[in-house]
Structures are given as structure tokens and as C-alpha cells.
Design a protein that fits this description.
homodimer, alpha/beta, Rossmann fold, Dihydrodipicolinate Reductase, domain 2, 3 domains, seven-stranded mixed β-sheet, 14 helices
């Protein structure tokens, strides 16, 4: 039987992980496929002909020029593992032009340009796979594409950024500040020197854009998604959340409503008794609600050389099988046009209970003034909470409000912002209902 | 584009669920596939030409003779949804002989004869799909077959029988007896009049046989799997388990060891802090440990018309896509021969800490006698626990022992059994380490 040959571009974390697995599992992969998956060529910027590769991959051509991979006649599948949106796009376009199928781990590029890249792939009669682009260790693409493809998805809620989940759960566990845990995570190499992509929600937003496109068959780009990061969360917010039977997580949510699809990445209160609330550290998780299949839940490592490497290798196996069978998939998972039913709409249409946290210079009449503003927006007050505090002069307190529109709550927050007794703008977090 | 036509045999719970979804989701399915999936014919024993089908399926031929489906030239895929191992086998063999691809929800048949049925299917160049045979709402086949196929599975642990999980979690929640909750479940229709398949572990054993075959690529049959049901668990066992920071669940376990694969379905103590311990009611869950990808977890409804229907419809979509592309899979997920590395071995080789519960007529010297027997088997005693009880004369107590071989513990239990102060044989439950 004819083997299928892979060219791997990018030998960072994910590329090295994938190569190690391809080498270590070569025999088992051959049993599962009925033929061998061979690494024909590898490329990275710093690679030379003498670079050591894992045992069993010694025959692979080594190059530092990716063009040699996408034009190599022996290569059937190109694994684009360099990341980013510039060279990666050239690699993918080059592979497409040369009739090579593609496996990519590139969330940013697929979130921005996935629909267009898929269209070109279909025209070129090649296959494209991107399991590793979202939640590395969780095979959520296979689940949505194959496992529950017959269902109609109603909502998804995920924890898709391991760094921010690690920071939040450590803040919760140890009662320490965001800055202190972030600094520690940076020192340990868990967080980047510039942490913005993780803690401001942009990384999670790219992942949600891809997942929502797959789940709803809708054309979704990152700009359709409301995003808010975790920098303003404090250890005291966890104390208040616990008081309310909740915890705080950076939740990636997509929910079909009568008005359209509401998409957001933001910190939210979720009930402590839910499985999602028990996702700790660098783990990722996705909750899916189907109209027919009901609730399903998927959990695993979000990143790392080996978990993401498994996603890449599993994609290579699937694409290899289809190459051997002469049947690339011909339907893009990204919609060609908006279907209407799932068209993204503004988060301002969303109704939720909200947690509003205030840090003030104490004086009489504060609650009355805040409650007056809420009442003027037709927002019903649920509870006022104040935990004992030893920082008496700017003690935080919390008001929870009944389900109200995001629009009304944002308007109220805007009106409160200039009030002289506030030491900072109010923090408003939605309280997510159980999916 | 040419449509693909389905013949559905069996209109019970699962068949009706699948038909409803095929009708309700027809347009979305066509968008995802790029062609239509049509129901050409349906069959059930009581069906007549005038039986009402869901809207949109009115054109389907109705018959009470399954032979008319498997020989119908318009039918491309036969959905075998009758269950059991007799007629179902004839249907599958008939479909195979007529070159129809097959989707089945039949755990019993696939656990017993899956390898042989797959071999025939491959020879006949048809495809076979069986997502619905295990944990209906959880797409665990897609996960193992596609999503994490590049990994090497080390262990799986599942809760695969919803009825027994419902009984255990209700006993735990309400402190009531097995008999009382079972009776209630039977009255509510959650449990069968003859509950043996569920509460004695046989249903879960069939499911584990299929999952383990997929996960390890090994030929596994139900007789390779140690099985013990939940009839002996009492509300007091939950009290003791909680005291130890654990709960009790019917765990389907498969674990690769240096000596081979150890397979069991049995009640076990698992830590309350694990996600698996928080699977309640009729839900199912599967924990998978991969050598490279680490821990992943999958959760959803275990049964029911709609969740299992989604599995059937998703399988139909995948098989239809492959029929259209002319590429049935050619590698059986069941091994042709034992691979050695994963050959099942006796559970007696397993090392675990154990929970031993005794119900006795109190008299001096009981602990000394039991401890003496344990010592003679080289089993180290960990703790002796006795909760306050108002049934003084046959109060239960618990001994936990250090990790020991199942062989030694079973030997000790055998030696204890005739002791005159025991009111019943000791109950021995393994304490599962976290995966």
C-alpha cells in the first residue's frame, strides 16, 4: 500500500510535539490507518541538515525554507505550525496552490480568514483540518463535525484560555491579587511577558469564533464577539461570588436567541455546583447544548506540546485516510453567507442577572443614589451584599440585579461612572444561567 | 447532486428519535453535507402503509418486513435499530450481503460479534457505524476514532449505565436503600421490570467491551471483563465513603498495565473532588487518559430517544458522506488478533487500596480475627472506621487496606466468609486512584 507523506513547517512547541508523537506512535498509527504516515520533510527557520530529529524520522528532508516543503512532490499534506497571520497565510496559500492538503493549528488565521481559506481549499480539491486551533487537547472539532453533527446546537459555553483560567483559579484558591498571580505565572513561563492576548480575552475570542462557526454553520469573525478581559477581577470578587454560590471564570459563550446569535468572551459568575465551575488551572472545557442531544461536556488540556500534538497527528491521520480514499471533504464548515437564523447580534440584547461591584469612599446615601439610577433604567434590585472588611474607607460592596438587558445595565454603569464617591468605575459581570 | 437514501428498521425509542431528527433537521443536514439525506423506507413489526411518520417523511415506504428494506435498491444505508442479537444479526448480515452500508445502535451485538461483523463489512466494501451503541448522547466513538486517534490510550474510566447511576446517586442523596430506590425507578419507568442488565453490570460491560476495543485496538469480548453489580451497596456505604472523602459509582475501567489490560465493571470508591464523582442521575461520562494528550473527559446523556437519535443521525451523515465520496473506511476498529501489548489479563493482578465493609453480631475479638486474616495475606491495614449507629447488634464497620492485589483481597474475603460472627459476606470495593 502506498504511504502518505507529511511535511511539517514550524518546529516550536506544537511542531516538536507532533513530530515526537508521529515517531513514537508510528506503528500504532499504521495499524489504525492500514498504511504508513511518513514525515517526508521538516522546516523551521533555524533548521540545518544536521538537526537531530526524533528516532525514526531520520530520513526526513530538513530545510529552513518553507517553499521547499509546499513544492516538494513527495509531500501529500503540509502541517502549518508556525502561527501568526503573515507567513502562515503564505504557507497555506502556497500549499493550496500546489494541491497539498493542509493541517493547521492556527487559531488566529482561521478565525480571521477561515471561510476564505476553506473556499480556496475546496476549489483546489484539497482537504483542510484544524482540530489543534481550539482547545488543543479536547477533540471538539471532531465532536462538532462528526460526533453530534446531526443535532442542532442551541448554545455553547467554554473555558478556552488556559492562562486566564489558571490566574483566576489561583486567585480564588489563594486569595491573592490578579497582579501578584500574573507576575508569578510570568516568572514560571505560564504567561507571556505581554499577557494581553490571554488576559484581555483576544486568544479566547479567536477560538470562540472558530467554534461558533462550526457549531452554528454561520460566518463568524472575531469582531462579532463582545470581549472583556479579567484584569479588573479581585480576590474580593471571588469572596462575593462564593457568598452567592458562584465562582468567576472567563466564559466564551455563544447562544441562539430569537433575535440571533449572541457571542461574548467575558468574566462571568457561574454556579459553583456546575461542572464548568470545577475546571481549574490550565484546563479547557466546552459545554454544548443541543436541541435534541441535550447537554454534553468536553474537558482536557488547552495547550502544550503533547496535547496539541495529538490534535495535529489525529488530523494528519484523518486527512491521510481521505487522501488515500480520494475523497476530500467538499463542504466548508464555514458558512458562505449569513443564514439569518444564526446571524450574530449585539450583546446589548442579552438578558441576564448581573453582579455589580462598587469600590467607594463611604458616605451616607450611596446605596440610595445607585438604586435610583438602576430604577430609572427599569432594573430590579435583587440584593445588596457587604462582606466584613478591614479596609474601611474604600470597602467594596455588591449589588445584584434581576435579569435585565445588557443595554440597560451598560447605560446604568455609564451614568454611575462620574459619581464622585466612586473610586473606580463599577464592575458589571453577568450571572450565567446554567446552560 | 444525487441524494443518499436511508432505510430505518426498528421504530422504538431510538428509531422514532432518529426519524424525528432527520425530519426536523433535514435542511441543516443538507447544508452540512452538500446533498440531501432522505428516508426511503421504514420498517417495524407493527407498521402498516397508513402509519403516520414525521412531517417531511411521508414519501417513505412503510413495511413490517425488514427484508424489504435490505433488498430495496433505493436504500443506500440501513439503520439497524431493533436491538438484540438474533433478528438484528440477520438484518446486518442481510444488509451486508446486499451491499448496503450499516448504522447500528446495538451494543450487545457489537460487543459480542463486532470484530466478525466488521470483517464482513470490509470484505463487502460497505461502511459500518456504531456511535449510538455506547453512551448515546456522548460522541465517544468520534472522539476515539478521529479526535484523539493519534494518541496512545493508557486508561479509560466510565459511567456507562444511566439506570445504575441514577439509583446510586439517589441512594446517596436521600440516604435510602437500594431496594427502595430501585422500586421507585421501576414505578417511574426508569428501570426495567427485570433490572438485571442494568444493576448487575451486564449492559455496562457490553459498552465497555466496545469502548476498550476502540481505545486499545484490541479484540475484547464481554467475557474478558470482570463484572459486579450494585445490589449490595447500602446507604451506609455512602456514609462511610463520604467519611473517606469518596463516593461510590459503578465504574467501567480499562487500564493498560505492564502485564496487560485490566478490565472491570464494578462499584468502586472514587474521590468526591473528581469530575467523575459529580456525574449524577442518568448521565454518562467517560474519562480517557492518553500517553500524550493527558486527561480528557466527556459527559452527556447516556440514553433516550433524542440523544441516541443524534448519534444515529450523525453516523448516517458520516456514512452518507463517505458513500458519496466512494470511500468506505477499510480498517476495522476491532483488532484481528490479539496484539499482546493490550491483551486482557485477570483482574486479580490489579493493585488497589480496598474498602472492606462488615456487618456483624458484635462480640469481643472481631477486629483481631479479621486483621489476622489480612496480615496472613500480607495486606496492610490502613484504618478501621465505625460511624455511630442505632442498630447496635449488627452494626456495620469498615476496614480500609493499603494497596494490595485483588487476588490477596479476594482470598482474604473467602477466608473470612465462614466466620460465625459475620451476618453476610464482607463487601470489598476498590478505591480507584485518580486517572
Amino acid at each position: 500500500m502506498k504511504d502518505v507523506h507529511v511535511g511539517v513547517i514550524g518546529l516550536g512547541n506544537v511542531g516538536s510535539g507532533a513530530l515526537s508523537i508521529l515517531a513514537a506512535n508510528a506503528d500504532q498509527i499504521a495499524v489504525k490507518l492500514g498504511f504508513r504516515l511518513r514525515v517526508a520533510a521538516v522546516c523551521s527557520r533555524s533548521l540545518s541538515g544536521s538537526t537531530k530529529l526524533p528516532d525514526g524520522l531520520g530520513d526526513a528532508v530538513r530545510t529552513s525554507d518553507w517553499r521547499e516543503i509546499v513544492t516538494n512532490p513527495r509531500v501529500d499534506i503540509v502541517a502549518e505550525l508556525v502561527g501568526g497571520t503573515t507567513v502562515a497565510r503564505e504557507i497555506i496559500d502556497g500549499a493550496t496552490a500546489n494541491g497539498k492538503s493542509i493541517v493547521t493549528a492556527n487559531k488566529e488565521l482561521m478565525a480571521l480568514s477561515g471561510a476564505e481559506i476553506w473556499d480556496r481549499a475546496i476549489k483546489a480539491n484539497i482537504n483542510l483540518a484544524m482540530e489543534a486551533s481550539v482547545a488543543g487537547g479536547i477533540p471538539i472539532h471532531a465532536v462538532l463535525r462528526e460526533g453530534i453533527s446531526g443535532d442542532r446546537i442551541v448554545a455553547i459555553a467554554g473555558i478556552l484560555n488556559g492562562t486566564s483560567n489558571y490566574i483566576l483559579t489561583e486567585m480564588e484558591r489563594r486569595g491573592e491579587s490578579f497582579d501578584s498571580i500574573l507576575g508569578e505565572a510570568q516568572a514560571l513561563g505560564y504567561a507571556e511577558a505581554d499577557p494581553s492576548a490571554d488576559v484581555d480575552g483576544y486568544d479566547a475570542r479567536s477560538k470562540l469564533a472558530i467554534l461558533a462557526a462550526l457549531a452554528f454553520g454561520e460566518r463568524i469573525t472575531p469582531s462579532d464577539i463582545f470581549v472583556e478581559g479579567i484584569r479588573r477581577i479581585t480576590a474580593q470578587d471571588f469572596d462575593y461570588a462564593h457568598q452567592l454560590g458562584h465562582t468567576i471564570r472567563l466564559i466564551c459563550g455563544a447562544r441562539q436567541t430569537e433575535r440571533g446569535l449572541i457571542l461574548s468572551v467575558r468574566p462571568a459568575l457561574i454556579r459553583q455546583s456546575t461542572i464548568l465551575a470545577n475546571v481549574r488551572g490550565a484546563y479547557n472545557a466546552v459545554w454544548v447544548k443541543g436541541q435534541f442531544g441535550g447537554d454534553t461536556f468536553y474537558y482536557g488540556r488547552g495547550a502544550g506540546a503533547s496535547p496539541t500534538g495529538v490534535a495535529v497527528v489525529s488530523d494528519l491521520m484523518r486527512v491521510a485516510r481521505e487522501i488515500r480514499n480520494g475523497s476530500p471533504e467538499r463542504v466548508s464548515p464555514f458558512a458562505h453567507e449569513r443564514l439569518g437564523e444564526y446571524a450574530p447580534v449585539s450583546i446589548k440584547l442579552q438578558h441576564r442577572a448581573y453582579y455589580l461591584r462598587f469600590r467607594v469612599n463611604d458616605r451616607p446615601g450611596i446605596i440610595a443614589e445607585l438604586a435610583g439610577i438602576l430604577a430609572s433604567k427599569q432594573i430590579g434590585l435583587e440584593a445588596v451584599l457587604q462582606l466584613p472588611s478591614n479596609t474601611k474607607d474604600h470597602l467594596p460592596f455588591v449589588i445584584t440585579v434581576e435579569p435585565s438587558s445588557e443595554q440597560a445595565v451598560q447605560d446604568a454603569v455609564e451614568q454611575m461612572r462620574p459619581l464622585s464617591f466612586l473610586r473606580e468605575a463599577p464592575l458589571a459581570l453577568p450571572m450565567e444561567p446554567p446552560l
